Fold this protein.
Amino acid sequence: MHDIVIYVLGVSGLLALVSFLPPLAARLQVPYTVLLAAVGVALGAVIQSFAGVQGAGPVHDFLNSLAGLDVSSEVLLYIFLPVLLFETALAVDVRRLFDDIGPILVLAVVAVFVCTFAIGFALSLFTSMGLVACLLLGSILATTDPAAVVGVFRDLGAPRRLTMLVEGESLLNDAAAIALFTLLLGMLTSRTHGGAMEAATEFLRDFAGGVLTGYVCGRVACFLVEPVRDQPMAEITLTVALAYLTYVLAEHYVGASGVVAVVTSALVVGSVGRTRISPATWGALEHVWRQLGFWANSLIFLMTAILVPRLLLGIGWVDVGLLAVVVVAATAARALVLFGLLPLLSATGLGQQVSHSYKAVMLWGGLRGAVSLTLALAVTENGRLPERVQSFVAVIVTGFVFYTLFVNGTTLRALIRLLKLDQLSPVEHAMRNRALALSLASIRERVENVARHYEVDEAATEAVVSQYADRLGAIDREREAELPISNEDRVTIGLAILVNREEELYFAHFKEGVLSRGVAELLTARSARLLDAVRAQGRAGYRAFEEPFIAFTPWMRVASLLHRRLGWRAPLARRLAFRFEILVGVRTVQRELLDFTQTKIAQVLGQDVSCEMEGMLAVRLAMVEQALAAMKLQYPDYALMLQSRYVGRAALRLEEADFRALHAESIISAEVLTDLERDLDTRRRALERLPKLDLRLDLMDLVGRVRFFDGLEEGRLRGITTLLKPRLALPGETIVRRGERGDAMFFIASGAVEVLVPGLAEPVKLGTGDVFGEMALLTRQRRNADVRALGYCQMLVLDAKDFRQLMRRDTELRAHFQALAEARRNALKPKPPADRAPAADQAVAAPADAGEPAVEAAPQGAGAQG
């Protein structure tokens, strides 16, 4: 039989066999990986028994094809391992991973070294093998396999945090263990020389190089996915290519750990790609990768398990004794990390506390799997290693892997039940009952409506409805017996639900095309930080995030600095447009959350909690409305354009859905649908072009708004205009600071500022047409007050050098400035108590320009300092 036929028959036969194993594992209530290992060993035994037996037919040819499969470690490492690692990392919630990054790093890195050295030194006491060979075996067994453990967790409903700890440990310890394995293998085959310091440096270099390579590759992939957006097959193919390219680039071109690189690139795609990859594709991408991961895990397990009977042919009682030593050493090392190092970590505040029941499950659930078997196979194929070392590693690793699978794996379910980790906490149980009661009442009502619609007999309907009534009664009796949830717990639970819902709504609006990718990324990231604050501090954490949620981004401040220092308007215009979209998106979601709170939260957690949460939402909504109103007043025309763009995106999405519904109903043909979608794409691209924002910084226009220049001749005015520079101040921005040298004066063309004068009970407010900052220039002294923008403030700036030149050149203007300064000094002189009036009473309303509301502004002769 031709080689290619052998491979096709063998692999396709294994895939056919694999398709029947998941339902069988569920029926037998054993972990899928354990069943895979058992079937693989059985196949290997059958192949060994019938090797060389003459026969014909597909079954005989299938067994011969498996016996003839050249399953090398390179095939497993380069074909299956990148897929296995990428799929596991892609499914990890990066935010939750970083919540427990301290314990995970201890388990993934420190535990790898502890396990390696514990096994290595223990074996060196009972065998004549060298210490490096024993350490090599320890590094192979230091990596854990989460497949079986997580499968049991999901079947039993184990706590989410426990699942994340196990997944995170396995994800990162694969990388650490393989990097350490590569280092020790090089030492054993004389490819590397040097002591412990050189080995540690090489390990760190491989690990850090893998992280950097993976991060760069992941970011490049997220950038390259933009041109193929809305092309599902191309987007998914790019991620598959990323897994293999990252592995090869790191291993063969950078000289770093390919495993670390693949894991890092997958974490980048998992965290960033959700908004870079088109929403319609993301769900399909996750499904495809789950399928690829299932194939990779199944085939790598079966192909290595088939080799087990051949590897264990020469096993003796000495090997059994050494295996017992490994079991004791590995268990003791893992217990030391879990019960010794993790408490120290939580005691120093570097990680959250892990309960003893979690530690017990993680101790017993440290199963070994496909990666350990693959590394052992790599050792047996290395011709530079002595045959006795190859046999030693193969037998011990294989024995230990199958010990963990058939002993630990089969009893893990019972341990979880014994520790009651499959049961809900009292708070979770109460929440379950409340949510279930709400759901059952709604379902009962809908069942009755369906029965009436289809004219079902009343007796038949009553038989179904009565079941829901009985379940509701049982839940009510349970709720009477359960302990009441404290108000603080209910508020914290409600806020966590609310923040999760907020993040979902941002993604929903992104999928609908209403929010742009950049805005969705920013708002979901802020929601993630808000959720962390709620978990840590409850309502205090939520309130602390009210203002930061609409705060200016660092990029906005950079754009403002570029405009102020270099006169670049375009970046600032883009960031203002971006901010407007943020504010509109936040306002829309906050209003939806108010409705969600009044209905769902009130029914589940009670009206008192709902009212408190509505108050918090109202505060956030008021802040957003205020910030949005300021932008609309400053740029009313642009606000209308952006609102039209916002609504236009939603309209295009509705059109697209309607066209596809018409095609599904066979009203329009596929050709017509294609033509309509082509027109939609054209209009969508036109809509995505950001309208130009006019910052209204035309010099002559701004000069015309300042009362100070009223009555000046046109020639003199033009001369002054050449010295002025326009500037936009953001709300809350400090324009002038007390104590700094006076290097400029400011003319307010639009907006308002407040002058914080020491000794005054209230700040002095200046509005459109007013001037500040001239006194420091006239007196050559430092500033004596802070000046802060109250809204978007357009100003004209005259620097000190030009000011002095203007004073020397224009005596009339100099007299005007001096009169203004003298009037302000007099306004700030102490007055007798009888007729002393607060500074706020001296302020009068100044006229507002450019859509600004009237503000309390001090006249030019009263109270402005700086």
